[in-house]
Structures are given as structure tokens and as C-alpha cells.
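Lecture 7 notes: from sequence to structure.
We start with the chain below.
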Amino acid sequence: MICVIGAGIAGVMAAYFLQKEGTDVLLVDRSSVPAGGGSGAAGAFISPKIGKGGPLQELTNEAFAFAQRFYRENFPEHFHGDGVLRIPKNSEDEKRFELYEAFNYRPYERWNAVRAEAAGLKNVPGGFYFPEAGDADAQEVCRMAAERLKFRQMEVERLEFAGDFWRVIGAGELIEAEHVVLATGYESDLLDLRYMGIRGLWGSRGDYATSRRFPISLHKDFSLSSTRNGRIKLGATHVKSPHPCRVCDGRPLATLEAKAAGITDTLDFRLIETFCGMRSTSRDHFPIVGPVIDVMRMLAETPAITRGAKAPLIHLEKLSILNGLGGRGFVFAPLMARHLARHILHGESLDPRIHPDRLFWKWVRRSAAS
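Predicted C-alpha cells for the same chain:
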């Protein structure tokens, strides 16, 4: 049996694809329901990444292509493919859009200001419209996927490896698993994961009642959904402070509401519910998918690595991680989870762009320098 710890979108998808590949899986979370943390607060916008090319944009768009098909096929009632319009953040960004276009995910449409105005926008020069993009119902997707899995509420306090299996230990509770997958997000203190540089990014989302009929979703430096059943959602992963509630000062949506009002009519928006939560990102902003290095053993057995020496990497047995999905958790999670499931169960090689090993040697050098 494989135990997946953490029932946000990363953990739910890891368990989902492991079970799909034919193995016995138990999903564990401290909350009584999946998506009790940052994933449940997500806007869950599923769109490509724009930019000047490069590995991260390429990987993101591969994940987007997989994700939008996956949600359409498996959760059609909770994926809303109305398309997403990507809008320049400012005049400088508008100039960069000219460079971005050659690297755009296809299909897309180039909109001008007239087209944007026809869609109910103001002060918008245009942008790139991606018709296959959309957004998902974050909590509903996680909980619907988890309905097909064995789920257990448990506050995991520590992990112990017993030679052939892992002991997952909570207060008076014990689970024995042949393999463990860590999908705990920004709270990653069960093992020494310092080299991965996992850190939190705070995100907020508001669901509003409105009489407006907004036909598409859009993304600027915030995201606004199309209107469905008289509701619209506004959100962003936008606060990097370790104390986001102090920064927000009790009004986590104030900045986003002001930005939205600058490009569309929000006068009748009435806030129904506010969602806030922490996402996790890696040191280099790529997902972290695969085996975990035994840091303490590496440092104890090969201390010369802190002085620039190389040594074979030692991994913790029968343990993997799926983390660092950042503000694009619902884009990355399905494809990354499938990669991980096939790696664990069938020995398929992992893409070096997502393999956790990529982060170790830079961390060792930085640690030695400091």
C-alpha cells in the first residue's frame, strides 16, 4: 500500500493516478476533507504560460495541454472552458507581448482594444485569448477525485523507516506503508527537505454575486472568472510576506477589487465568501517530483561535499515527493502526478526539469559559502 500525505490538489492527483495505475493507495490529511488548505482557496485557473520561451514555459504549457483535457474528460461539470484572455499588466508589459507572441501556446487569438471592449472590458489594449483555457471548481474537483480513493483524517507527526516499510505516525495512530508520497505543500517538516527551498506564497480569492454576464475569464496580475449562475470569482497568488494577514490588514481582496474595477464594471459585485491559503513553490519555480535525498546521511558520510567534492547521491528508500507547484497547482498537478505514479510503479525515468536532485548541489554550495 502507498500512503500519500496531503490532500491538496498535488496529493489528490498523486493518489488518483497511483490508483489508476493499479495499486492500493491511502490518502491522508489532517483535515477531515480534501482541499482544506491552499488548494481549496485557489482560483484554479487553467491557462498557458506566456513569455519568451524557455524550459519553464515549455513545461507549463505541456502541463496545461494535459490538464485541460484531463478536467474536461474526468470532471466536466467542474471545468469551465470559456477561454482565458491574457492582458498586459502595464504599458511595458504591452511592449513585451510583441516578443511573447512567437512563443504562444496554440491555438490562440490576438485581441485588440475593440474586441476587449466588446467583451465588457475598459482600458485594455487587447491581449492573447486562449480558447482551450478556463477554470476549475477547486474544492469540488479535489473532493470528487477523493471520493474514488481511500481517505483518512490524521495529523501526521513523524515518519520512521522500518527496513521494508514506512511507519506513518500520529497521536495514537499508526499506518504502515510500502511507499510514502509527501504532498504536504509549504509545511514540509516531516523530513529534512532544506535543499528544495520550499516556501509559501499566499493567495486570496473572493466569490461574488453579480448580475453581469461576463463571457470569458481573464488574467492580468490577478484573475477574474466568467460569470456562472450569477457568481464570479476574483483571485491571485499575490503576497510573498511570511505574515500575509498583517499585510492584508483584514482586507485580503481590497487590492484585487481595485484592480478589477480598473478594467471592468464591478459596481454590483457583492462579496459572498473569501478564501485564503498558502501555496508552495520551489527554489527555481519548477515542480518537485520524485525521490528525496537523505540529506543527513549525505552530510555525515561524505562531508567533503560541502567543500566542492562530488559523491553519489543517497536517496531515502521508498519515499517520493510531489510539491512546489506554486500558483499553478491545478495546471501542474495532473501531469506531474502521472509522471510520479509511472516512476514509482513502473520505473519510468523522470524529466530532469522536475527531478528533485537538480536542487541539491546548488544548495550544498550555498550552504558551504554561508
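Points to note: The longest strand covers residues 270-281. The domain at 80-134+200-275 is CATH 3.30.9.10 (D-Amino Acid Oxidase; Chain A, domain 2).
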